[in-house]
């Protein structure tokens, strides 16, 4: 498991549950991406009624200044600007009667909007 940026500098941790890793790896494979190089990008962007929201997408490879985390065979890429908002977070995959999807448990959040789609630190 790597918790280093591409330049070898140590970074705060991001955790990924086994359920989230399995789901993301299945999706990466369906997209035809090489899971040894490609990964899931987790980022924070401006938006939502609370001010910030999470974003996720698949990337072919990490950017030069990304922190790279490897959990259960899934590579997760986080840019430096996003890392300050989500360090210490856990990415999980939830499946239930109402909804199914990825969820970020972020210890830095001080408030969330009513729908849970955006947050403030």
Automatic annotation (TrEMBL):
Q: Which residues form a coiled coil?
A: none
Q: Which InterPro entries match?
A: ATAP, ATAP_core_dom, FeS_cluster_insertion_CS, HesB-like_dom_sf
Query: Which SUPFAM superfamilies does the UniProt record give?
Result: HesB-like domain
Identification of the protein by name: HesB/IscA family protein
Instruction: Cite the Core domain residue spans from the record.
Output: 14-117
Domain of life per record = Archaea
């Amino acid at each position: 498991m790597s918790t280093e940026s591409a330049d070898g500098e140590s970074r705060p941790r991001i955790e990924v549950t086994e359920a989230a890793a399995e789901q993301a790896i299945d999706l990466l494979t369906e997209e035809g991406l090489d899971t040894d190089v490609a990964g899931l990008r987790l980022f924070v962007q401006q938006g939502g009624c609370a001010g910030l929201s999470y974003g996720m997408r698949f990337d072919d490879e990490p950017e030069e200044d990304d922190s790279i985390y490897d959990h259960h065979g899934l590579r997760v890429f986080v840019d430096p600007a996003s890392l300050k908002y989500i360090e210490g977070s856990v990415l999980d995959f939830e499946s239930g009667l109402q909804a199914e999807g990825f969820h970020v448990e972020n210890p830095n959040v001080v408030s969330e909007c009513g729908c849970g789609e955006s947050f403030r630190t």
